[in-house]
């Protein structure tokens, strides 16, 4: 057998490289072998420390590529080069089973969980899965509302914390960072952003130019002015979801032409959209809800929920409300509410002596309302020492459905204009959130902080 003499220095270096590769392959096999003992560390440590274990392997690949480029200088120019496809690198977290990821996310503080689900599509999908809603942190932490709809009286914005934490101090709930005006009210709240209206005149009329609209983020103290629609003040609502897009939209319903108008923050312009179903009227956009990219609003005249696809700008859904003996007139005064919770669209209605809560499910391509809960009003009120008044005789403002909690099975109610109560649907337990001297609540919203900077620009 013949031997070819090679450079000793190269041979030693090559042997060292091969030995290093073998050692790293053994390390990699030990890590992937389920029978081998794992070091004692929490799942969170394993998630964030694992990228460091691949550092030496990445360095070896870079050294290989460097040697290959140096050798190419001596190759003839007429030789065809073939490019080898290398698999894309994946972050170790993407290889974790979903149940492990959910367990990790469940141990995070609400503020950290908000950040993570806003930047990861895979974690967004897990957080949006109804089966995981009870395992993950509740992101809604407080309530916003103002106490009167009358412009001639002092309008005051109130904030109530549902789960006090040190992070609350960083949120400016007084909205003192907004431009100063004589009066201010809260119009809408959507996933951490607030839509506010301010004015300086004593009695600004709807067609005046005395209204100033702002979208703000109390968690970051950022704000942006919104151009006033040409036809004066109309019902407005805000649509924002950082999991889908970092741009927001404002929905306006023109009560004269029965048309919707949408303002997009990325274009800075208002555009009109026409309903696919003629006769869709009497839509109260301020009682609507933005869910999975669609803005849903109740059309009382049609006893239906209208869905507006904000990406295409079309009114694309028309969902009939559950059957009930309640008249259209009564539903205008807070006796019903739409919302979302646990990944489903919800509809709550004060139906005679009960409060019924339905969820919208899809069966074989068709929407179907499923009755989820039925709350008896009489024992609920008697629990607080309030005399029960039967449905035909009680006033319209005797009991109002204010909001549906987006994370847990809770409905917020107002009783006799004096107290706000949260009712836990699963356990049947209720507790008083606050009592108030004000008689008029207008604009009641469940607030979830959005700690992302730069959403509203300068």
UniProtKB/TrEMBL annotation:
Residues 1-43, 61-93 are annotated as: Disordered. InterPro entries: At3g26010-like, Beta-prop_At3g26010-like, F-box-assoc_interact_dom, F-box-like_dom_sf, F-box_dom. Coiled coil: none annotated. Residues 90-136 form the F-box domain. Residues 1-11 have a biased composition (Basic and acidic residues). Signal peptide: none annotated. This is F-box protein At5g07610-like. It comes from Elaeis guineensis var. tenera (Oil palm).
């Amino acid at each position: 057998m013949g031997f070819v003499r090679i450079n000793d220095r190269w041979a030693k270096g090559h042997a060292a490289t091969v030995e290093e590769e073998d050692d790293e392959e053994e390390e990699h096999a030990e890590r992937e072998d389920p029978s081998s003992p794992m070091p004692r560390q929490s799942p969170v440590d394993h998630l964030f420390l694992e990228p460091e274990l691949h550092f030496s392997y990445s360095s070896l690949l870079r050294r290989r590529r460097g040697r290959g480029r140096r050798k190419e200088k001596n190759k003839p120019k007429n030789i065809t080069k073939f490019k080898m496809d290398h698999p894309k690198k994946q972050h170790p977290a993407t290889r974790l089973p979903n149940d492990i990821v959910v367990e990790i996310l469940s141990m995070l503080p609400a503020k950290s969980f908000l950040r993570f689900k806003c930047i990861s599509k895979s974690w967004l999908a897990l957080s949006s899965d109804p089966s995981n809603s009870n395992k993950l942190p509740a992101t809604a932490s407080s309530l916003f509302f103002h106490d009167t709809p009358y412009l001639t009286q002092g309008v005051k914005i109130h904030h109530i914390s549902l789960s006090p934490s040190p992070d609350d101090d960083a949120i400016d709930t007084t909205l003192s960072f907004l431009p100063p005006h004589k009066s201010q009210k809260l119009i809408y709240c959507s996933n951490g952003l607030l839509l506010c209206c301010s004015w300086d005149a004593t009695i600004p009329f709807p067609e005046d130019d005395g209204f100033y609209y702002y979208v703000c983020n109390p968690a970051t103290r950022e704000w942006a002015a919104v151009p006033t629609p040409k036809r004066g003040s109309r019902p407005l609502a805000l649509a924002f979801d950082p999991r889908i897009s970092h741009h927001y939209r404002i929905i306006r319903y023109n009560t004269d032409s029965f048309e919707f108008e949408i303002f997009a923050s990325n274009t800075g312009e208002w555009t009109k959209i026409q309903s696919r179903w003629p006769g869709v009227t009497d839509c109260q956009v301020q009682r609507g809800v933005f869910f999975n990219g669609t803005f849903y609003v109740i059309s009382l005249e049609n006893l239906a929920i209208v869905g507006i696809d904000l990406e295409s700008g079309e009114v694309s859904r028309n969902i009939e409300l559950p059957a009930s003996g309640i008249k259209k007139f009564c539903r205008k005064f807070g006796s019903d509410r739409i919302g979302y919770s646990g990944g489903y669209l919800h509809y709550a209605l004060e139906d005679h002596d009960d409060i019924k809560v339905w969820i919208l499910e899809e069966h074989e391509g068709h929407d179907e309302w499923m009755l989820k809960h039925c709350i008896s009003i009489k024992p609920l009120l008697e629990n607080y020492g309030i005399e029960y008044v039967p449905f035909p005789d009680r006033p319209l403002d005797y009991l109002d459905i204010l909001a549906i909690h987006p994370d847990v099975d809770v409905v917020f109610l107002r009783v006799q204009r004096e107290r706000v109560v949260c009712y836990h649907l699963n356990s049947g337990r209720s507790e008083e959130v606050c009592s108030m001297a004000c008689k008029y609540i207008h604009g009641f919203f469940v607030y979830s902080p959005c700690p992302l900077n730069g959403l509203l620009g300068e």
